[in-house]
Amino acid sequence: MPQPVIGCDLSRAFLDLCGLPSGRMQRIPNTRDAIAEWAETLTPDVLVVFEATSGCDDILIATLTEHAHPFSRVNPRQAREFARATGVLAKTDRVDARVLAQMSAALDLPVTRPVSPARATLADFLRRRRQLVDMRKAEKLRRHSAGHDDIAEQIDAMIALLSTQISVLDQRIKAIIAADRALAEQAALMSTVPGIGPTVMAVLLGELPELGTLCHRKIASLAGLAPHARESGTWKGARRIWGGRRKVREALYIAALSASRRVPALIAMRDRMRAKGKAPKTILIAIACQLLVILNAMIQKSQPLQIT
C-alpha cells in the first residue's frame, strides 16, 4: 500500500492541502492554532510535503517538529519542473498542492531533518544581517550621486547607523553560536581552517545545517559547487555548476580566496590547475568545492584540520 502523503501549498494567509491517495482537498488558515489543530488529525505514517517558502513555512515547520511528524521541504524549482514534466501548466494554490502530493507519491523524497532552535534563530539573524548589508551597499551607491551636501550628510548618517546595527548583529550572532553546544563545537573545528572567518563560519552554520551529515558529492551539489556533465552523443560540453544555495556558495568563494594561499593541499591544487591553463573562475570554484568537502569531512569525524 502506498504511503499516504499530503501536499501543502503555502501562502501568508492559507495552507492548501491535498491528500493522496484519498484526493481530499482542504484549506486552513496559516495560523498557529489552525495548524496545530490540523496536525492533531494526522496519522504517524503521513508525509507532509511543501516547498521551501521563506517567511510562510515557519509556523508549519515548528508545529510538525513539535509533534515529531515527518515532513519533506522541497526545492520550489524541482516542484515546478515536476509539474511541467507531468503536463501540468496551470498554477493555482490547489493545483500546486496536488502536484506536491503527486511528486511525493512518484519520487522517493527524503524526510527533512528539523534544525535546532538555536540554528533556526541563527538563520533568522543572518537573514537580517544580509538585509542591512544590502541596504548599506545601496546607500553607498547613492552617496556618489547625492548632488547636494545636505543629502550626502543624510546618507553618511544612514551608512553609519547601518554599520552600527550590523556590528550589533555580529555580536548577537557570535553569542548565539557560543551558547549552543553543537554550534560551538562545529565553529571550533571550522576556526582551524585558514580563510574561515566569523562571517563565513556563521553562514555555513546557519545556512547549511546538513554539513557533516552528507557525502562529499551531495554536500557539494547542495551548495551548487558540483560540476554537472553536459554531453550528448559524440558532443562533450564543458561541465558547469548549477543551482544550490547561493549565499553558501558566495561565502565559500570568499573563504577559498584566502585558503588557496594558506592551505598546502589547496595551494597545490591551484598550481596544478593553473599549469593546465584553467580559467581563474574555474580554479576558484574548484577550490571552494574542495574546501567544502574538507569542512564536511572534519565535522563528520570531529577532527580539526591538520596543516603540515
From TrEMBL:
GO biological process: DNA transposition
GO molecular function: DNA binding; transposase activity
Transposase IS110-like N-terminal domain residues: 26-144
Transmembrane annotation, as ranges: none
Pfam families attached to this UniProt entry: DEDD_Tnp_IS110, Transposase_20
Record domain Transposase IS116/IS110/IS902 C-terminal: where: 188-264
NCBIfam families for the chain: transpos_IS110
Protein name: Uncharacterized protein
Protein's organism: Acetobacter senegalensis
